[in-house]
Design goal:
Blueprint lengths: L11 H7 L9 H9 L10 E7 L17 H4 L4 E3 L6 E3 L3 H4 L5 E7 L6 H10 L12 H9 L8 E4 L17 E2 L23 H18 L7 H17 L2 H6 L7 H5 L5 H15 L3 E5 L9 H26 L6 E7 L2 E2 L14 E2 L3 E6 L7 E3 L16 H11 L7 E3 L5 E3 L13
């Protein structure tokens, strides 16, 4: 998958049934009545896939189109119908249009951080970043809360995600970065898992015994060192993974049937989605992908139409369908987001114009894990410049993501100095997702 640099380094009838969901008219009393009637699904996910659309995708050109807005806002793309009556998305997302019943579109998500780094930290943790503390990413929290020691890595980043960090939880909750993206039809060699250059499992075991002997000799010097403790745990995990045929098999996408693999295509993003599906099926708890290229200050429409949207449409639609075919969608929650949206009004930086950073209004996608697909929740105004009503915060979406995984987002952790930290500092579960 290419590494991209950014510029600074609902169904209509369901909407009517519950009453003005997009306007936050869905009350606690309504939710409790529906729960009592058995209309609210319980959280059931045991694994997750997080997809970071690095650079910030344009909401107006993808999942929140405004065909009635003036030309300088609506742009060149046109909406198309989806497989859910009343929901339309961009004409350049035809495959995702055919599977809207499997995911939820959140519109009117809003925040105020217009810089790539800060916005990315926010949406990768669910808590607004502060200078004095590094909050853990979703993958680290899910690993801490759900993983039991095994011969599989609990948390994998394809190829890496600089914002899904363990933060104050420590290095033992860091992801295994694959360091590269797989290629269609080829076994995937992961540095640190594959045994190359003639190295055998027996040789790895001999070296590991030497390390154990050294650990015993120097144990007293590291008893109070959190970093060394984390590295020690990381070393044990790495040894279990390297010597495990099951772990190496989990990364071997060439073992998928040609018919199943075909729908993912041959782009780096599509094949990474195939690998994510296989890892989840094998027992990995959390997989994160990063797909860049969305920082479209110039040539917004050509870049999206020709380069960015086709692989995204093919890969993500295949991910939803692949998880569904394998019976994994109900037990896997999928979260797709950029760090912000793009300016509704088109700039004049190039012949066809571009869109700049815009955190006041954006979209996010959620699927699986008891989340009821085929909905649009939230609403933006007539030019997609702001939420029409209250809007959702990244914190709310994070709380809902954790809820789908059975994790209490109000739980407190403690830093190594004893400072109490709530998993999501300021968010509420969006109950409509589970109704």
């Amino acid at each position: 998958m290419a590494i991209h640099r950014t510029c600074d380094g609902m169904r209509r009838r369901d909407f009517l049934k519950v009453g003005a969901i997009g306007g936050m008219g869905f009350t606690l009393a309504t939710y409790l009545r529906m729960a009592k009637a058995g209309q609210v699904k319980p959280a059931r996910a045991k694994s997750a896939i997080f997809i970071h659309l690095a650079g910030g995708p344009s909401h107006l050109d993808t999942f929140d189109m405004k065909p009635q807005a003036p030309d300088e806002y609506r742009g060149k793309f046109r909406p198309i119908d989806t497989n859910v009556p009343g929901i339309q998305i961009s004409e350049h997302l035809p495959k995702l249009a055919k599977c809207v019943d499997k995911y939820v579109i959140l519109r009117g998500v809003t925040h105020t951080l217009a810089a790539h780094q800060l916005g990315s930290q926010y949406v990768n943790t669910g808590t607004r970043p502060i200078a004095s503390l590094e909050y853990p990413g979703y993958g680290a929290v899910v690993t801490k809360e759900t993983w039991q020691p095994s011969d599989l890595p609990p948390f994998v980043a394809i190829p890496s995600n600089n914002y899904q960090t363990p933060g104050f939880l420590g290095v033992k909750y860091a992801p295994l970065n694959t360091g590269a993206t797989p290629r269609a039809g080829q076994p995937f060699s992961v540095r640190g898992i594959s045994l190359g250059n003639g190295l055998t499992v027996a040789e790895v075991e001999r070296r590991h015994q030497l390390l154990r002997d050294l650990d015993v000799a120097f144990r007293g010097f590291e008893s109070e060192d959190q970093l060394l403790e984390g590295l020690d745990e990381f070393s044990r995990q790495a040894y279990a993974i390297i010597t495990s045929p099951r772990s190496r098999d989990a990364f071997d996408i060439s073992k998928e049937s040609p018919a199943f693999a075909k729908m993912f295509g041959e782009t780096p993003f599509g094949v990474s989605c195939l690998l994510a599906t296989r890892l989840i099926e094998s027992g990995v708890r959390f997989v994160t992908l990063s797909y860049g290229g969305w920082d479209t200050h110039q040539d917004n429409f050509t870049r999206l139409k020709d380069r960015v949207l086709p692989p995204f449409d093919e890969g993500l639609a295949a991910l939803f369908e692949g998880l569904h075919q394998k019976g994994l969608l109900e037990s896997t929650v999928v979260f797709v987001t950029g760090e912000f949206g793009r300016t509704p009004k088109i700039n004049n930086r190039s012949a066809e114009g571009g869109r700049d950073h815009y955190p006041r209004c954006m979209f996010m996608l959620l699927a699986g894990g008891g989340i009821r697909g085929g909905q649009v929740l939230g609403e933006s105004d007539d030019k997609a410049t702001a939420p029409r009503h209250e809007g959702f915060k990244p914190d709310d979406v994070a709380a809902s993501f954790y809820h789908a995984l059975g994790i209490d987002h109000t739980k407190e952790y403690h830093t190594d100095t004893g400072r109490p930290i709530t998993i999501v500092r300021d968010g509420r579960v969006i109950r409509e997702l589970f109704a």
